[in-house]
Amino acid sequence: MSGPVTIFVTGVTGFIGGTVVNRLLTHPNAASFKITVLVRTSEKAEKFKPLGVDTIIGSYTDKDLKFLTDAAANSDVVIAAADADNLAAATAILEGLKIRHEKTGKAPILIHTSGTAFIGDNAAGLRSEESTYSDLEVERLNAIPVSVVHRNVDIPIIEADKAGVIQGYIVAPSVVFGVPTGPLAENKIQNVHSIIVPALVRAALDRKRAAYIGKGLNRWSATNVNETADLYALILDAALKGPAAAPHGYYFAESLKYSAIDCAGKIGEALVELGLITEKEPNAFFAEELNKYFGPLWPILAANSVAKGDRGRALGWKPVATLDDFLADVKEEAKRLASETK
Questions:
Q1: pTM of the model
Q2: Which domain of life is it from (predicted)?
């Protein structure tokens, strides 16, 4: 590709999106990248100036999303790491990429962030029987209906890819953990906390005891945030070589699996050590607590969602994070959050 590679990134102050931007800024070919990011406020935009990153001010929740269409139309690559289920935003981006395709005659690259929640079951924390999904099982994944979480956005992306309008890659992380590294983290621009563990920690602090749903038997895959960002960079490198350099479609990010009860146990240990609760052993959430703490998302937390990222590994991705790493991080994350809420 002659000239600079124009890259538009959304979700850049988030846990995953910010870490992906860190990888772009420290990439061996960073000098050839012209990066533009979406931020919500002028204050946030100012923080990106010292990094040599251009900004567009807006939000996926704006009524007029033409700014997304325009940004995508002017980009060789779009990395979407904001709301995975916002169809209006995804449609606006796809419209822009279609314009880009028509203008250049080349299919632009879209790396969209989804998640492995869409392969989850309805275990309600009561069982650990698991059906593992590989990202190589294309027909099995494509059979999952649009009514399932994330699929409302994933399916249009897959269809646009099939039509040759884009090079479509969908990164579906499992539970993401760890401490982001890179310029955005160091300059306190991005969120450095994940979603699942903090929600469980806040609930434990409020109810004065760590907890799990049902019997806590359900299992999820998990992935380190920095290793997940490595996967994005690997996909980008391959995609820039040409449409045939890397398979299009889903890329699951995972390197281990854990049980909900073990996760809750580590949260309990951490909060007891800090003197914030007195009972180390977790118990089950009461039914009325589920909506209080997690709203309609609690069945997802209580599901079995076990993925296998075979496609990324075939491309050269080599995650090394282990179950021990995850459980150690759960404990440290609980302590970090507790210290911030004092």
A1: 0.97
A2: Eukaryota
